[in-house]
Design goal:
Length: 430
């Protein structure tokens, strides 16, 4: 079989408008005659806008049709800028949106998570239609692939779990013939399909993960994730001055950073690549000639402190009502509930007086979980906190990050320090 030499992933910002799509086409011109699988996110903030459609439809809080119409018009406008008024893209886009119009015309029968996936996934369907059509328009013939036909998941809607074996078989069946006839294949990130042909999504920001799944299945030579930053930085430039680009990272370091909440790559992306030793480049679509960051097995790297800040943390202090310690039996129940409501524990500690966990605020899920705990336990809930993690910490950096803050919870594991902090309320002298 002809394997694609590369997998490229273009995120929402890289296809956010007509100029951005032209820029992607220009980047691809530099790779002429290479076989590339192109994984694309929804345009700009489309996924957020579609989430609002879902909320309006399921909770009847707003006009779902009007919100969907706005998303549709944004796409038509971009199409018009790229293709003029007469082009097959308009009917392709219309077919994509009409399916959702049919869904929201009916009263809601299915679960929220199912409905969410059917609606939100059209962002990627539309963006890939647009990019594939534009590449063809520019004589860079690219074939469009429906990712739902090859990425097989179970029916955990909103967090589809990949069936690697079936996905492998489907990729081997479909992709070689596409690459025999085409250099470029354009497909959707973020989405998959169940055995019954229902659409699933892989979790927010899941397109990186899709790129890794494809690369794994195709034994790709490398993966490049194209972003609006020069590469992976040692802290979020929106929160810190003087951040540095990391030229190289090991898979292990990248896994650790993303596990602790660094938003730069989806946490599930690295392991499949590591298992096949597939190098991952994080590059800038604004400066495509820049070196970016290269992630490989290389362990011989000295790192500066790397800081990850996760806002919106909630601390749950859980203790028993009968003054006993929180034991393994209690913990079994508590973990089951976290799993049931799909709330990820960011940090935890079992202490004499309570079992304390830090989780990210997910208002609706916590609103279900908290009453479950309150039936049998005493619960103190602390909201609006930050979880700050520093890999390769120094005492100076911890001191500077905790200045003006109360540390509620702190942990050191090898080279990593994590702390949950709260702003010290400002006191104004009378
Ligand atoms: N469009 C999806 C999101 O915004 C997936 C992705 O961009 O990776 O979460």
């Amino acid at each position: 079989m002809t394997n694609p030499t590369k997998v490229f992933k273009f995120g929402g910002a890289s296809v956010k408008d007509a100029d951005a799509i032209r820029n992607v086409a220009n980047i691809l011109k530099k790779y002429r005659e290479e076989k590339i699988l192109i994984v694309v996110s929804a345009m700009g903030k489309t996924t957020n806008a579609l989430e609002k459609v879902v909320a309006a439809y399921t909770k009847k809080t707003d006009d779902a049709f009007a919100l969907l119409e706005a998303v549709k018009q944004t796409h038509y406008q971009v199409a018009q800028e790229l293709f003029g008024t007469e082009h097959a893209i308009f009917s392709l886009l219309n077919d994509t949106f009409v399916e959702i119009e049919w869904v929201i015309e009916e009263d809601q029968q299915d679960s929220y998570d199912y409905v969410y996936d059917q609606i939100v996934s059209i962002g990627e369907m539309a963006s890939t239609r647009m990019l594939a059509a534009f590449l063809a328009h520019e004589n860079q013939a690219a074939v469009w692939l429906d990712a739902r036909d090859v990425i097989r998941t179970d029916d955990t809607f909103r967090e589809g779990r990949v069936d690697w074996e079936t996905t492998g078989t489907l990729c081997q069946k479909k992709l070689p013939s596409l690459f025999d006839k085409n250099d470029l294949v354009v497909t959707q990130g973020f989405i998959g399909g169940t055995q019954e042909n229902f659409t699933t999504t892989l979790g927010r920001e899941g397109s990186d993960y899709s790129a890794a799944i494809f690369a794994y299945q195709l034994n790709a030579e490398s993966v490049s994730i194209w972003k609006d930053v020069p590469g992976i930085l040692n802290a979020d430039p929106r929160l810190f001055d003087n951040v540095h680009k990391l030229d190289r990272l090991s898979y292990k370091e990248a896994i650790e950073m993303t596990y602790y909440g660094a938003k730069v790559i989806h946490p599930k992306t690295i392991k499949p690549l590591e298992s096949k030793n597939i190098p991952l480049h994080v590059k800038s679509f604004i400066d495509p000639a820049g070196a970016g960051t290269l992630i490989t097995t290389d362990d011989n790297i000295t790192y500066p402190p790397v800081v990850v800040v996760q806002p919106n943390q909630v601390l749950l202090h859980i203790s028993t009502r009968d003054f006993s310690f929180v034991t393994e039996r209690h913990l079994g129940f508590l973990f089951q509930q976290f799993d049931k409501y799909r709330i990820k524990i960011n940090m935890m500690q079992n202490m004499a007086n309570s079992f304390t966990v830090s989780v990210t605020e997910r208002t609706e899920r916590l609103a279900q979980l908290i009453p479950e705990f309150e039936k049998d336990f005493k619960l103190i809930v602390d909201r609006n906190l930050e979880l700050i993690t520093v890999r390769h910490y120094t005492e100076d950096i911890i001191a500077s990050l905790s200045r003006g803050k109360i540390i509620l919870f702190q942990e050191y594991i090898e080279e990593t320090m994590s702390m949950v902090v709260k702003e010290i309320p400002e006191m104004i002298r009378k």
